[in-house]
Design brief:
Layout (H helix, E strand, L loop, with lengths): L15 H4 L19 E7 L7 H17 L3 E7 L2 H13 L6 E4 L6 H5 L7 H4 L16 E2 L2 E2 L2 E2 L2 E9 H6 L8 H13 L3 E4 L6 H15 L3 H7 L7 H15 L12 H9 L3 E7 L3 H4 L7 H6 E4 L12 E6 L2 E4 L6 H23 L16 H12 L2 E4 L1 H4 L2 H15 L5 H13 L3
Parallel strand pairs: 1-2, 8-9, 11-13
Antiparallel strand pairs: 3-12, 4-5, 6-12, 7-9, 7-10, 7-11
Helix pairs in contact: 2-14, 8-10, 8-17, 10-18, 17-18
Length: 435
């Protein structure tokens, strides 16, 4: 297995996000369709209309624009939910029938597809000025052995969103320390309010809590070092972080049944006022800013706070996050040139549209002075501007096999089925087996 490059993203260059003007304005196996000279690009994405309406509509708008500019090309669209998408991508890859264009995550997620010669390099697409439109560090997260295999669409950090109205009713302020967080949890619970919405059936949601506790206790590089093998997963800070997770579980910090609930169910509980806090990445910003289907009263009540320090340790400007999903082109596509033209067009169009129409933070640079943005969105941009570090999501850093161990162990940890020591040992064994 190749040595993994360091994944922790130092983001001083993200200052450009606020100041640099940004973007300019088939059949199943991707073969040519039978109708004359028209070619069909099969495109699969993970933003259904029901749960990601703004994203869904922007994608359709971009497709319509591309087809208008390229009348000899048709885009055949398939839309799945996040988990369905991941499952189907695995099935299609094993049968050699990937869509011509699809969505991928960076780092460890895409490496097996690159190793299997399934994703096409996109450096030729980035040439000619497109690369300069991306925030520094975003396309690099999609590189393997110096070649770029995805065009990132989003840049995310995870924060704790909270219901300001519920906090005010319970005489609480946004916590800055772990002790203040525990006090808020106890107060809410005593007053009959579920403190934290968590849908840990999806497991990566619980990983966010673990990652932040590890970051605050052991520093911004402790987890990445364990994964890239310059350190060990049995580092005392990583064991202590696992212990803190179980401390929160024991004090009933999370909604009842959290280990059997999907993230969408937990999100609904937060958005219905049934829980006071919800740790999620900023891909959820549209629900709290621009999504007109969400009542204005609720959107006005949402604030967020950076994850607190733990026992005096930790940098609150260090975040879990990184580039979100990106576009890939199948190496075996029979319409590869058309597919590359489509992903280039998509990336160029996505930036400003995603900001103004969906409240998304894109991976491309945007001049915030030229677009009308909600205060919550601007606050997040300012946090990105001042971030000391962004550590990429743990399961994305890891190979698929190790990521599976991590996610299974996260659920076991939250469920009280393993001790903190067993949790870290299982990770260390899985990582060491790939050296």
């Amino acid at each position: 297995m190749r040595n993994k490059k360091a994944i922790t993203l130092l983001v001083a260059a993200i200052a450009l996000l606020l100041f640099v003007a940004g973007c300019s304005g088939s059949d199943g196996d991707g073969s040519e369709s039978s109708s004359g000279d028209t070619k069909t690009i099969k495109f699969m994405h993970l933003w259904p209309e029901g749960s990601s309406k703004d994203h869904y509509e922007i994608v359709n708008e971009i497709i319509a624009g591309f087809e208008e500019d390229n009348p000899d090309v048709k885009v055949d669209l398939e839309v799945l939910s996040n988990e369905q998408y991941k499952d189907k991508l695995k099935v299609l890859s094993s049968s050699g029938k990937l869509p011509d264009v699809g969505m991928t995550w960076p780092a460890g997620f895409l490496e097996p597809y690159v190793d299997g010669n399934m994703f096409a390099p996109l450096d030729d697409v980035l040439d000619g000025g497109l690369k300069d439109q991306f925030v520094s560090g975003t396309t690099e997260a999609y590189q393997v052995d110096g070649k770029t295999y995805g065009l990132p669409l989003e840049l995310n950090i995870a924060t704790v969103f909270y219901n300001k109205k519920i906090f005010e009713e319970n005489n609480l302020e946004a916590p800055k320390t772990y002790e203040e967080l525990k006090n808020a949890i106890s107060t809410l619970k005593d007053n009959g309010v579920a403190p934290i919405a968590l849908g840990n059936k999806d497991r990566w949601t619980g990983s966010l809590w673990y990652m932040y506790l590890a970051d605050r206790i052991g520093g911004s590089d402790v987890l990445t070092s364990a994964i890239d093998r310059s350190g060990s997963f049995e580092d005392p800070a990583l064991t202590e972080a696992a212990g803190k997770v179980q401390e929160l579980v024991d004090m009933e910090a999370f909604i009842k049944g959290f280990n059997g609930l999907a993230d969408q169910e937990a999100k609904s509980m937060f958005m219905n006022g049934q829980a006071a806090m919800y740790l999620i990445a900023t891909w959820d910003l549209p629900n709290y800013t621009t999504n007109e289907d969400v009542p204005q009263e609720f959107r006005d009540s949402v604030g967020y706070f950076n994850f607190p320090t733990v026992e005096g340790k930790g940098d609150m400007t260090s975040f879990v996050g990184g580039p979100g999903v990106g576009l890939f082109v199948s190496e075996d596509s029979e319409v590869k040139e058309e597919a590359k033209a489509f992903v280039k067009y998509f990336a160029e169009q996505w930036g400003e549209k995603s900001v103004t129409q969906a409240g998304v933070i894109p991976a491309t640079k945007v001049n915030s002075e030229e677009v009308d943005l909600p205060d919550l969105y601007l606050d997040v941009l300012n946090d990105l501007n001042s971030a000391s570090n962004i550590t990429l999501f743990a399961d994305v850093q890891m190979s698929p096999d190790v990521a599976q161990v991590h996610l299974d162990q996260i659920q076991a940890l939250f469920g009280g089925e393993v001790t903190p020591e067993e949790f870290t040992k299982k990770h260390e064994e899985a990582l060491a087996s790939e050296e």
